[in-house]
Structures are given as C-alpha cells and as structure tokens.
Amino acid sequence: MKTALKILAAAVLLSAAGAAFANDKVMIGEPNWPGAKIVANLLRTVITTRLGGQVALVPGTNPVIFAAMDGGKGDIDVHPDVWLPNQKSLTDKYVDASKTVALSKGSYSGRAGFCVPTYMVKEHKIKSVYDLATPEAQKLFDADGDGKGEIWIGAAGWASTAIHQVKVRDYGIGSFLEPTKEDEAVFFAKLASQIAKKKGVAFYCYTPHYVHRLHDVTMLDEPAFDSAKYKMVQPNEDADWLNKSKITVGDSPKFVHVAYSKSLERRAPDVARFLANIKLETELVSEWTRAVVVDKKEPADVVKAWVAANPKVVDRWLGL
After folding, report:
1. What mean pLDDT is reported for the chain?
2. Domain boundary among 247, 270, 304
3. DSSP annotation string for 119-182
4. How far is the C-alpha of 293 from the C-alpha of 185, rounded, in Å?
C-alpha cells in the first residue's frame, strides 16, 4: 500500500512539474569552482530526470547570480554553492532584506584558511600564518625570482578572495609575500609543478576540496575566530572595502547552502520545494570533487551515476 501511494505521489509530482515547466526553463548559475560546478550538475540532473524539467547552466560570479535571482525574471534562478559567512553581504541583501532569495534548509560544512605542502611544515617549520610573515618565508616562497614571495588568495570575483586579501595584509604577510589572483585550475597546475620540485608554495585552501586528496598539504594555524576582530566589507558593498575591513583571526566554520529565487515558488513550485529540501554531506562533495578533478571524470557523469544509485536520498529531497 505504501509503495502504491509513493508511486501515485511521484506521478502527481511529475504531472505538476509538466505544468510548471510549460513556459519556464530553470537557469542554474555556475560559479567557477569545482564544488559549485558539480552541485549545479546535480541539481540539473534531478530536475530533468526526476521532475521532467528543462535546465540550463549559466556561468556567473556571486554578485551577478544573486542580482539575477533577485530580479526573479528567470535569467538565473539558482546559486548552487553559497558559502556563509563568505557571501553574507549578499544573503543579507537578498535573503534577509529584499526577501527575494531563499536558502536551502540543509547545508554542508566547510573550513577555509591558508595551506602549504606538508614538507614546508616538516623541513622549514612553517606552521602558522605568522610564519609566512618573515624574511625567510620571503625567500622560500619566491617562485618568480623577483625577491618577494607569492601567496595565492583565490580567483577574481570570489568573496573568499577579498577576505584573504585582507588577511594577508592584517597578518603582516603582505610585507613578504605578494597576494596573487588567478583561475583555480591555472593555479593548481602551478601547485602540482611546485610540489613536484619540493618548492615553497602558499595558497588559499578550503574543505571540502580535492587538493587534500591529491597532495599532502597542511592548513596553517590561525588565531581562533572572534567576531570582534573580524570585520569584512565586500567590494560589492563599498568601493573603499579594503580600508574599511580588518581581520586578525581565523574564519568561523563555513556552512554551504543552495540559494534560489523565490519566484520559483510561483513559476516551478516543485523545483522550489526540492531546492529547499536538498541536504548534502561534506565527504560526499569532497569525493565528487576528487572524481572530477583528480580522476578527470565529467561532473554530469559523476552526479548522474550517484543519483541513479541513491534514489531514496533523492526521494527525501523531493518530499516523497
């Protein structure tokens, strides 16, 4: 009897989906980091295979995606990987103030900071962020031979990149290491080369991320998070953001949600319910990123296989 009711519920849901999608294609934003790309493909797979919808992926930065979700016109409907508190300025504006964007009820956890290859810890005693703010570190991390070291702080457009630019300055690292910005794929190709030669390299890192499975790296110690010592103004909030920000402690724990335009509650309510209910696990996302980046599998193939193998989990997300 329960099985019959479940099948009937699924049929009703799919029927409703057909009506909801008569005129609407769900547009999922695709930020430029691996976890976001993978989760975007997961959402597309569930919406197309389980809800019978149409989906397109749209590359975009965090501010662009949130502004489009706020508009509610279907230009971009979903942000697949919202890191809080990194993107708090955007959720404050669109989730809390405008109330045009909603966050998934569930989230997975993460952690962010600076990493070095573990041999730098063992051989050169680089254990904390303050160990990067020394003349010795300046020499150890100078990859281009210009007399000053380098530290990768992320890609342009990431909220975390601005955060770590402030940290490099306020920890005193900037006097010895130049903060650099470039696409993640470009930097991690350089990282592999530097590690192969056992050279010094310092970089922004976070979990879940494939780098922890691909290389032996260590996250450096930072002072414990203290809200009184953590003031971050994002570039989208104020042109003078750098001077108005000051961070002298480590980050608080991260929580990662899916965000979606509340216009979907009207245009495609079954999709909105799914996005509200989805809950991912840190280890699962980490495994997916390893499969995509290390094993060179396509994100769509990885998540399609997982969805096919885990129908009960997807059922819960769909409210079945």
Report:
1. 92
2. 247
3. HHHHHH---BGGGGSSHHHHHHT-SSSSSSEEEEEE-TT-HHHHHHHHHHHHTTGGGTEEEEE-
4. 9
> At 46, which CATH number?
3.40.190.10
66-117 pLDDT, tens digit per residue, is 999 999 999 999 999 999 988 999 999 999 999 999 999 999 998 899 999 9
- The residue among 247, 280, 299 that closes a domain is 247
Residue 219: HSE in the Cβ half-sphere, 13 Å Cα cutoff: 16
Look up the domain containing 186 and give its range: 111-247
Same domain, 118 and 102: no
Q: How confident is the model at residue 178 (pLDDT cuts 50, 70, 90)?
A: very high
Give the domain CATH number at 178: 3.40.190.100
Q: In the chain, how many domains are there?
A: 2
Residues 58, 30 contacting (CB under 8 angstroms): yes
Under 8 Å between Cβ of 168 and 203: no
Work out the angle between the directed axes of helices 299-309 and 311-318 (0-180°, nearest 10). 90
| Helix ranges, 171-247 (H) | 184-196, 211-214, 241-244
Indicate the DSSP class of residue 57.
E
Cα gap 37→42, rounded to integer Å: 9
pLDDT, tens only, 133-160: 999 999 999 998 999 999 999 999 888 9
Q: How confident is the model at residue 320 (pLDDT cuts 50, 70, 90)?
A: confident
